[in-house]
Amino acid sequence: MSGTFESFGRIRRHKRRGVDPNSAMEALRVGRCEPAGLLAFGNGRSYGDSCHNDAGSLIAMQRGAQIHAFDPTTGIVDADAGVTLAELIEYAAPYGFFAPVTPGTRFVTLGGAVANDVHGKNHHKRGTFGCHVESFELLRSDGKTHHCTVTQNPHLYAATIGGMGLTGVILRLRLKLTKVSSLDIEQRVTPFANLSEYFDLAEAADEENEFAVAWVDQLATGRFEGRGVLMTGNHADNGNFSAKRSRLPLRVPFDLPFSALNRTTLGLFNSAYFNVNKRKTAPHLTNYQSFFYPLDSIEHWNRLYGPAGLYQHQCIIPSDAARSVIPAMLAASRDAGHASFLTVLKRFGHVRSPGLMSFPQPGYTLTMDFPNQGEATLRLLDRLDRMTVDAGGRINPYKDQRMSPAAFEAGFPEWRQLERLRDPAFVSDFWRRTALALGADAAAPMAQYARGHA
Ligand SMILES: Cc1cc2nc3c(=O)[nH]c(=O)nc-3n(C[C@H](O)[C@H](O)[C@H](O)COP(=O)(O)OP(=O)(O)OC[C@H]3O[C@@H](n4cnc5c(N)ncnc54)[C@H](O)[C@@H]3O)c2cc1C
């Protein structure tokens, strides 16, 4: 089986080798896998190369995936890892349940959400996706299926949550959903004139609301510099449990030959977005799809970046440095002549993830999306990495396509523990170019595996 198996950034576009989950499982169960390694592939909503393994094969996890059982008294659902969040939300809604944590797209698989330990707009209240995973079945190249919980195989449990697919294949999991009063969200929008105002608002907004996230006009300068809107929300009380997927009304049907998202178009978009939203200050009801997944309604919207694709940069800056470093990062991007389509700022709370390599830490997370303009973009991204590392922060690996091994190690010194628990038959392009490039010792499990299968 071959296919593009693209990641969302679409920087390296070529055909990749895929394997049918059943044959991959069969090979793993009898301890026979290809030496160049395997990697599970969910729905490619990671931005970079953490979901790729170009020398080896990808296991297409969505095939045949289904929900097995749901207990409305406990909220625990038992589902295959290839089920998508969109499917799960539609299934659980009539029972009055919703995903405990959701990223900004519902087109992710449950396995992908565990492997990246994704976060949502309620990190300050509920932590990451992994905080709600009761157990999972992990198939490794020893041919065994390991039942993992906080107390059974605890090291594999911790290493797999946020372990980016490197510990084996999650076959099936039990996830605790949240009982809600409605799928609708009562939303409030609070405009801020600059980032100081945002930082003054953020902590109290988190205390008072289940969901909070800010959009920033990255291109605004002068007296408008750092303006934006803080969007907060809570599940409404109107008992609306209709999860019907809105038909995707808009679609970018083909690759544009150039990026439609440039300084001029984004300058216009940002001004319009700010001016429309700043008027929505009164509390109002919003459909869950528009609140959580505004971009899911435009199919293939990443094609707007043109054939060269996009880079996303997401970092965490510790709270004490955020007030100076985040404005400096926005200025650095503007000075480099780069315009970010989506500039999102969010405060991470203190709920600890059970995952060893989970990305969120207390502090502020800034996310920017840049069209790929070659060397100039890579220089800017390196600069943003340096600013992050100097501030004691870290860069999100599952959004990344190019950070240096040193920048990765500075943010994730615990990578060596993951390397010790990595399944020797599993590897990703991201892991090869960061962790495995850091030292000969690190490559030991892969070499040992290759020797055993020579
Ligand atoms: C528009 C948009 C908004 C987003 N917003 C957010 C956000 O708010 N917060 C956030 O945290 N992320 C966000 N993301 C990123 C996205 O949520 C994650 O990258 C997610 O993990 C992708 O899931 P996937 O199923 O597409 O997995 P893939 O991208 O295909 O794979 C992700 C990782 O999971 C591993 N994996 C997949 N399935 C399995 C399995 N069964 N067993 C073991 N490993 C597996 C893969 O090997 C890979 O390492 C966003 C992405 C987009 C495109």
TrEMBL record:
<dbReference type="Pfam" id="PF01565">
    <property type="entry name" value="FAD_binding_4"/>
</dbReference>
<dbReference type="InterPro" id="IPR036318">
    <property type="entry name" value="FAD-bd_PCMH-like_sf"/>
</dbReference>
<dbReference type="InterPro" id="IPR016166">
    <property type="entry name" value="FAD-bd_PCMH"/>
</dbReference>
<dbReference type="InterPro" id="IPR010031">
    <property type="entry name" value="FAD_lactone_oxidase-like"/>
</dbReference>
<keyword id="KW-0285">Flavoprotein</keyword>
<keyword id="KW-0274">FAD</keyword>
<protein>
    <submittedName>
        <fullName>FAD-binding oxidoreductase</fullName>
    </submittedName>
</protein>
<feature type="domain" description="FAD-binding PCMH-type">
    <location>
        <begin position="11"/>
        <end position="180"/>
    </location>
</feature>
<dbReference type="InterPro" id="IPR016169">
    <property type="entry name" value="FAD-bd_PCMH_sub2"/>
</dbReference>
<dbReference type="InterPro" id="IPR006094">
    <property type="entry name" value="Oxid_FAD_bind_N"/>
</dbReference>
